[in-house]
Task: structure prediction
Amino acid sequence: MINLPSRVKAEFLRLKKRNTLYLEIKHIKNYYFVYQSTSRWDKEKKKPIKIPSYLGRITNDGKFIQGKKKKPKELPKELINTMQSIQEERQTKLERIVTDPKKYKHESKILTALSMNGRIPMSVIGKMIGLKETAVSNQVKKLEKKYDIKYLAEIDTSKLGYLQFLITVKFTENFPKTEELNNILSKEPLIQLVLLTKGTNFDIAICALAENSHEIVALVFKLRTKLNYKAIWDTAPIFEDYGTIQLREEFIELLRNKLLVREYAVLKELSKNGKVDFSEIDRLHNFDKGRSQYSYYRLKEKGIIKRVTISIQNLPIKYIAMIFEDIIDFKLFIERKDKTLKDIISESNTQINKYLLVDDTTSPAGIVLYFPVFRDGDLEDTIEQITSINLGVNTRTYIITSILLGNFCYRNFDNYYSVQYKTLVDDYSEKEITTKTYYEETGRIKKEKNKYATDIRGLDRKFK
Result:
């Protein structure tokens, strides 16, 4: 916030408390102008952009003078009809992508198969969905182009000795420019994800990795020194329960001394392109034939590589919300935790899972849910659903206005393999589904019940 006279500042803070959206103030020629920021999705930049709306000005004695609303100009009838046609076309396309499961049943199953194993043979997918290998291959190519699909290795950083932390920052006065934030934070390889948010308690959320608490304390001290702004910093360990994020190349470079040369090379190349041929990795790094493939299976055996997965980059997401469930009644939360688990793995009517990421938190104790919003009202419906369950939690919501650094992993994970489903079966006597799909590199599909097992798209209906 700019330096304001005390009366102007008091009035501006009063306006901020009364307004649910983000407000900003500008000082121009001895006048203090107040704007309300909304946002729209920029398809090219793939992030929301701010649209300021003028509210009024504050006089030097602290009086707010509301701005006069301009009478909108009447548009030509032809232009109105054209705009309506474009809007109807966009809405139809969105509804087709989001709410037409019958027409896109193969698409959903293919995306699930690729999410579970990005290197899965086309013949295996063909057996799953009842199509020929060439037809599957053509559909996969179309989906890759349509959704801008990226293939990457899903890495378990805990197997490499790293802990996860959530750092939140609330600036009490001035807010640094985006370029300054990016220049400082991008130079820290331990930082994997930086989110600009709109909420009460913090302005920035940072997901970072560190080998111990001393390393994360040193990182925060370094950032506070470089970002010389008055701010409240909070750091807490988190435990990834569902989903994953894309690890930055700068972090992968840190693993050079933690792994064997061949293992590091494989991890590095698969993080850039999960579909790269092992023969190509051998060629790039001058390995003997077959060494990269052997190292890949060694990494999987150790649990360092969970799988090669995908991230669907091109989706009509309006924004992403962070939903905090802070536990206030621990006994009630444990008694009804199965309802939370069922909510996390419930069926989504989009091309990706309902939640991108779910983390357990320790300070305060609870859960953080990263929820992608496709349509107006989705977030409100989800919050209402969580509240109606009465989990013994206090719910806080933050809107992610921009992803400054890193990215989420957008995919359609088979929830049969989730920690949540296993917990429901082991701890809450949920009857285990006997039909299971095996997404193996070998191309073999094992059956527990039917000839070709299918995924569990009807999981949420079973739980209701």
